[in-house]
Every structure is written in structure tokens, then in C-alpha cells.
Amino acid sequence: MKWLNFYIKYRLWLGILLLALAIYVNMSAGFWPSFILYLLAVIGILGHFLLGPMRLIQNAMETGDMVAAKAIVDSIKFPKLLIKPIRSAYYTIQGNMAMVSQDYEGAEKLMKKGLSLGGSLTKQAEGPNLLQLGMLSIQKGDMKQGESYIRQAIRAGLPDNENNAAAYLQMCSIMMNKREFRAAKEFFRKAKGFKPTTPQIVDQIKQIEKYITRMPG
To answer: What span, in angstroms and rounded, lies between the C-alpha atoms of 214 and 116?
Structure first.
């Protein structure tokens, strides 16, 4: 799909070029011969402002090229012109990038903004975003809000075993702090059942496992 990526990257300039060509044909041969050129020009220009380069951003993030992803995000000069679902995904991606940069306050604001807009694209990221918001709240010391976000994340659905294990482990820790040991054990059992492979999560499971069996309940 390289041609599609090329088109998305340059569709504004292609649209402007087609518009100039359409005007030339219009002046030379009349409106109807130039109609298709006008149509393609409008599609390209409107697509640039209403849809943005979201596909390019996602491709860059999936390959781990955060520098390229940030450059593409920064190229969107008028995010308020993006249609609502795309704008929602735009703020969600910005929030994820802020997390990578450890700008936790900015990440929280952007993720909340993305979630507030809704839309099918954000629906796919709703669970992971709520989980991240929960983690951020806990880092800030707001355990009650953190627990609320993580419970919402679990209800919304998480995309893979790693995210699910992280959510249930965090709930286990919260329950342990609240001395609700039976609930803590149940959350730990579920977290372990996802069989995560991320070293950090695996290590956390090993650490909790050392003393969770000695807890009452």
C-alpha cells in the first residue's frame, strides 16, 4: 500500500496541482472537461484537512519510529478541522506520545480530550487509554480515581494479554493496599492467567507471588 501512503503524504499538494490543472482546462476547453479534475482536487484538499495523515502516524508508531510519528503529528496545523472520530484519535495518539516523553500531566489532558470526543477509532483505544489514566492517577497518589479508571478499562476491554495482566496486577496492588486480601488474590489469579511475557510484568508477578499466599482471606 505504498501508493496510498504516498497519496496521503502529498495529497494536499496533489490537490492544489489538480486544482490548477482544472482551472487551466476549464479556461481552455470549458467546465465539463475539467469537472473530474475539480472533483479530484476537492477530494485531495478536503481529505488533507478533514482526515489528516492518521494512517501515516499509526504506521510510524507501529514500527516504533516515534521521531517520524511526532513529525507527522506536528504537521497537522489545524486539528479542529479534522472530523470528530479522527480528531479523537489524534488527541489519543498525542497523549500516548506525551506518555513516552514522560509528560504525564500533558498525557492525561490529551487522553481525556480524546476520550471525550468518542468515535469508533477511540473506542478501540478506550480500554488502554483508561488503563494509562489509571496508572497516571496512582502515580499522582489518587488511588480512588486510579481504581475507577482501571475498572473502567477492564470493562471497556483491553487488546492483549499484556494490558490485561497489567490491569489486574494493578487492581491486585490496590486491593492489597486496602487490605481486601480475598479480592487481591482473585485479581492476582486473573493476572497470572493471562500468561504475560513482558519482563517487567513477569517480574512483578514473581515479586507479588512471594508473599500473596501468606495473606489471609
So the answer is: 43
